[in-house]
Design a protein that fits this description.
Arc Repressor Mutant, subunit A; DNA-binding transcription factor activity (chains A, B); 2% strand; GntR_C (chains A, B); 243 residues; two-stranded antiparallel ribbon; DNA-binding; DNA binding (chains A, B); homodimer
DNA sequence: GGATATCTTCTTGTCATACAAGTTGCTTAT
DNA sequence: ATAAGCAACTTGTATGACAAGAAGATATCC
């Protein structure tokens, strides 16, 4: 239960407050504390972790900001309801890395499918032109023998933006980086990530569907594309879910 | 640019660190600062806001934890890439309250539709029984003349849980509370929120589809239900997006 | 005896100061 | 001009002090 203050072996030493915050977060997520429980007073935490009150307060401030804890001057600090958090964080079960990635992909399918459908319904001509440009750039990059990863990312980004829904855009972009993080974390699966020529067909299908204003076709093309890449890169077999 | 330290008129005084953090967050979101920009040193912020360094540090700790800022001992603090944030927060445009709610509903439609489809594909018998129980409880509550709001919530929750995807479950629940918050915030639209008898038909349709294991039907029933309630309660006309 | 008011103690919120650790940029010597 | 070294600046941590509010114990009044 005690934190090490200074471990010289660790290259990039994390700030103490962050260590404490992470520790407490795990404690709460592992249900050692339940929502509504009263939290130990700061003085006790100071002893427990062997750090100054300033550090404890910075850690608690972070967790209060994130919505994990609640406090009022004079009163005791309480563990907040998970529902009431202002920010959303993935709760990653370290025991099931591969499952995590699959679950994340399911989320991705739902959102990017919807984004593509929305793009087909209300994408502006400029947005659609932008998608086309990204498609061409990707084509070019691949025929040049490059990996095409950045162009691929740009294509998906342009696609998302054509949904014109700021929350969906923001969330999809956020999720991409979370997925990337998961991939980096679970290195036992090391895909070469080289885009096979086939994907370009899938990309084109998505573009065509959006351009023709057919939301269902756009959604299906996107889902097919994501299902295929999940299988190809990670061996994940996503459920069809009726589309 | 200066914060008031103590405003006796405000009932529930927010902590200074939280005020500072919110202020800085808005500054960053409104693009006054761009990712990669170096941030003013703490000493300068102390002067700027007229608070102690401890308060500034707690605010900065919160923002670093959220992923908005990055710092290294000795170096300058920088504004982090929005993409790299570990937690997701809604960026609410205060100018367009009604739009926000509509956009949130689009997100909700995408996710709950997917959840319903997944529930139809892989919902366990126990999960489906639970949905039925919630449906019955809602029926009972409504025939008793109650609002049925808590039962309605329970029904949707049971539905979501049957998707068996922890991230989707967590995110939908989180979004419900965000939507509720938005509704509270924009009080000019004050719906009476009383469930009309018609919704029960829609609920039953969702349940039947899931029970029969038909993901497409479950998805469509859910989307129809959400579209109708968005229109009924808030006058929001959601796009069809091909389903 | 029970409800109410007061007071003591505990806890969180804020401030001030000091120093350690590390970075940045300038100065200086080669 | 380049590189080493130094000085100033910035963030990280620790400590002590006090204010403000909450919670519980105590005393008071009916």
């Amino acid at each position: 239960m005690k934190l090490k203050k200074m471990n010289p072996k660790v290259k990039r030493q994390e700030r103490l407050a962050e260590q404490v915050a992470d520790f407490i977060t795990k404690e709460i997520e592992s249900a050692s504390f339940r929502p509504g429980d009263i939290f130990p007073p700061e003085a006790e935490l100071v002893e427990m972790f062997g750090v100054s009150r300033a550090v404890i307060r910075e850690a608690l401030a972070s967790l209060k900001h994130a919505g994990l804890l609640e406090s009022r001057q004079g009163g005791r600090t309480k563990v907040a309801d998970l529902e009431n958090q202002k920010s959303f964080r993935l709760i990653l079960n370290p025991a099931t890395k591969k499952m995590n990635l699959g679950y994340l992909y399911e989320l991705r399918v739902a959102l990017e499918g919807e984004a593509a459908a929305l793009a087909a319904v209300r994408g502006t001509p400029e947005q659609i032109v932008k998608i086309k440009k990204c498609l061409d750039a990707l084509e070019q990059a691949m025929s040049d023998g490059q990996s095409g990863t950045p162009e691929n990312l740009a294509f998906h980004k342009a696609l998302t933006e054509a949904s014109s829904n700021p929350h969906i855009i923001h969330f999809i972009n956020w999720m991409h980086s979370r997925i990337e993080e998961q991939i980096q974390a679970g290195r036992e699966v090391s895909p070469d990530r080289k885009l096979p020529p086939l994907v370009q067909q899938e990309h084109t299908a998505i573009y065509e569907a959006i351009k023709s204003g057919d939301p269902l076709k756009a959604r299906r093309a996107t889902i097919t594309h994501l299902k295929n890449s999940a299988m190809k890169f990670f061996g994940i077999d996503l459920p069809s879910a009726g589309l």
